[in-house]
Design goal:
Blueprint lengths: L4 E6 L4 H8 L4 E6 L4 H7 L5 E4 L6 H4 L7 E4 L9 H6 L3 E3 L6 H16 L2 H9 L19 E5 L3 H12 L3 E5 L5 H6 L3 E2 L3 H4 L5 E4 L13 H4 L7 E4 L8 H9 L5 E4 L19 E3 L8 H19 L12
Parallel strand pairs: 1-2, 1-3, 3-4, 4-5, 6-7, 6-9, 7-8, 9-10, 10-11, 11-12
């Protein structure tokens, strides 16, 4: 029997992360590409650590893994992991806090610019031979000098603020848990009351976790207070925006457009009206899917496991259970 600690990799990660395991004589790994419930229950029995993307890890599975000491999430969200079961079994849950901030913040800027410059409409016009109709097309928006509200000021929010300042936008931040001096140090202004301030914003970007406090955080009552040229972007978690009420606001021309990388149900139902709304710019939960980010994330996922067993795992990477 091997004395190596076994890492169960649930769905493959970038080879850069796997190479770290291959180079470490104290660890071995097994990859499962089709992790249905029965396979997970079988494979978890003899592993010491789990590296996982978005596959659901339920209490039924976790309770069987008596050897498991750490679940290392390939990403920053952890709503796919049963935290109560993890706590009950004394399992540490870690996240990749440093890997995806650049990729996600760039994706937000990509969406903001694509919507404000009507990318889809203009691209379609010239490709369909309507170059001469350019004076008939609706005009676009500048983001220079505009107000952007970043809701949630963690690593991604901070990274986004730098990019917005590069476009000479005015950055406002709503995050009750972040000190005003920290926000100022990143060139932003702290907002105390979301309801009162949202009417002054030209763009809003969401960077908060999914929980009882943030569920349907953006609803019709807030949407109807926004400027008609406001663009809202969600690259955090589905369910933060009420999708039915967002679609209603778009159809009633209450806001300019919406960029969504995440959805209440993933994949979204085919009959979800936001999929057919011309005022949305959508992506399939791929804000972090850059080549560079996949390398960073795979390496940090595995390094978190190494650090845990060496008693070096940073507290900032550990989920509070």
């Amino acid at each position: 029997m091997s004395n190596k600690k076994k890492i169960l990799v649930v769905k493959n990660i970038h080879e850069a992360g796997l190479n770290l395991i291959k180079e470490n004589s104290k660890f071995e790994f097994e990859i499962i590409e089709n992790p249905n419930l029965n396979i997970l229950k079988e494979k978890i029995i003899d592993c010491d650590a789990i590296a996982i993307k978005t596959t659901q890890l339920t209490s039924e599975v976790i309770n069987i893994g008596k050897k498991v000491k750490i679940i290392s999430r390939h990403g920053v969200g952890y709503d796919n992991i049963d935290l109560n079961a993890s706590k009950k079994n004394n399992i540490t849950v870690s996240i990749t806090t440093t890997a995806n901030a650049v990729a996600v913040s760039e994706h937000v800027m990509f969406m903001l610019l694509s919507i404000s410059k009507r990318k889809s409409m203009y691209d379609k016009a010239i490709k369909s031979g309507k170059f001469n109709d350019r004076n008939k097309l609706p005009k676009t928006l500048e983001i220079w000098g505009k107000n952007i509200l970043i809701i949630g000021f963690g690593r991604i929010g901070k990274c986004l603020s730098k990019r917005c300042l590069g476009f000479e936008m005015n950055v406002y931040v709503y995050d009750p848990y972040v000190n005003e001096e920290i926000i100022k140090s990143f060139g932003g202004k702290k907002i105390e009351n979301l309801n009162d301030s949202i009417k002054d914003m030209d763009a809003i970007s969401l960077h908060v976790p999914s929980n009882n406090q943030t569920k349907n955080m953006i609803n019709f009552n807030l949407l109807k207070k926004m400027k008609k040229n406001c663009i809202i972007i969600n690259a955090s978690r589905g369910g933060i925006i009420n999708e039915i009420e967002l679609n209603k606001a778009l159809n009633e021309n209450l806001i300019f457009g919406a960029g969504l990388d995440v959805f209440d149900t993933e994949p979204p139902n085919y009959d979800n009206p936001l999929l057919k709304n011309d005022k949305t710019f959508l992506s399939p939960h791929t804000a972090s899917f850059t080549e560079e980010c996949m390398i960073r994330m795979s390496k940090e996922t595995i390094q978190n496991i190494f650090d845990f067993f060496n008693n070096k795992l940073e507290k900032s990477k550990i989920v509070k259970l």
